Amino acid sequence: MLRPFTLHRPQSVEEACALLARLGEDAAPYAGGTELLLLMKLGLTRPRHLVDIKRIPGLGAIADAPARSGAPSAPPRLTVGATVTHRAVERSALVRSRCPLVASVARHVANVRVRNVGTVGGNLAFADPHSDLATLFLTLDATVELVSPRGLRGLPLSDFVRGPWDTARQPDELLTSVHLTPWPGATAAAYVKFGVHERPTLGVAVALQLSTSGARARVADARVALGCVNPRPARVPAAEACLTGTTVAELDDVLEAAAALALASADPADDLHGSADYKREMVAVFTRRALRVAATRARGEEPAVGFPHTVVA
After folding, report:
1. Are the beta carbons of 54 and 11 closer than 8 angstroms?
2. Which of 62, 98, 241, 269 has the highest CB neighbour number within 10 Å of its CB?
3. Which residues contact 100 (CB under 8 A, 6 or more apart)?
4. Contact 286, 202 (CB under 8 A)
């Protein structure tokens, strides 16, 4: 049962930040509420004020944004506003054009009821370690934008999420958007997740940027990110280095080595989703599967996969 609270409905980001600054730790930003309201019902968090940001103009937009400063020739980034729902990401023509894997993964977040209500900003700000999007976004060099009465600051997503349900957001700050850097056209990518329940037990995101197409193609840059097993989603630099420079024809030969490096980076804990030892073994298994899917796509084919309780995007 929800305890009484006051609902505030600011009309601008500035008004929302002023409310958060004045109310302090007694207040929480509120968008979709799929996770916040659940914790409130369980009595695990008890804010006396909710600052509803759903109606603030601009926060529900998906748009192209300028490339990072210092990279004038780089393609524009993709900006996803904080109150954009998972369902909107799934159905966005711009997302499907610029970051097609993001749209595919969004289609498999929780269930359709959650996707219609839950927001991208709320998902990231909540820092649930079982986040599909946070894991995938790491491979897209995601940065979040935070606004407060002191001004605006940007943070890499890897710095913003500090641990389970813990972020670098200050009490008077509002997460307003996330910026993604789309991969170049010649990129083979995959996201594989396993879970018996709606919250995945493990998620692996892989992106292999190819130097060219055809049999002579090499992996010019590799991204591997693990989610749901560590205290927070994280990339695996050792596995990425193992894959970089490999030809497409050689990818199958390095899958075991890359999977072993991903396994070495895992730091799981026993919980309702399984024991730490079980999760470690799953990291190796599913990293191999994700890399195998990406390698098949790098050869211009689509893999035939079908494992119980497994989603391949």
Report:
1. no
2. 98
3. none
4. yes
DSSP 8-state assignment for residue 119: B
β-sheet bridge partners, residue 156: 143
d(CA 179, CA 177): 7
**What is the model's pLDDT at position 72?**
56
The rounded percent of the chain whose pLDDT value lies above 70 is 97
Domain spanning 187-312 has what CATH number? 3.30.390.50
d(CA 269, CA 277): 9
pLDDT at 146: 98
As a dihedral over the C-alpha atoms of residue 97, residue 101, residue 104, residue 110, rounded to 10 degrees, the angle is -130
CA distance 227 to 138: 10
pLDDT tens figures, 37-48:
888 988 889 999
- Provide the CATH number for the domain formed by 6-52 in this structure: 3.30.43.10
Domain ranges of the chain: 6-52, 62-180, 187-312
270: which 2 tokens?
Answer: 């026993």
User: What class does CATH assign to 62-180?
Assistant: alpha beta
Closest by alpha carbon to 10, among 75, 48, 55, 77?
55
| Structural contact between residues 280 and 263, judged by C-beta atoms closer than 8 angstroms | yes
Q: Could you tell me if 86 and 122 are in contact, meaning their C-beta atoms sit under 8 angstroms apart? A: no
250 — phi, psi (to 5°)?
-90, -5
**Quick one: DSSP state of residue 247?**
B
Query: Cα dihedral sign for 149, 140, 273, 229?
Result: negative
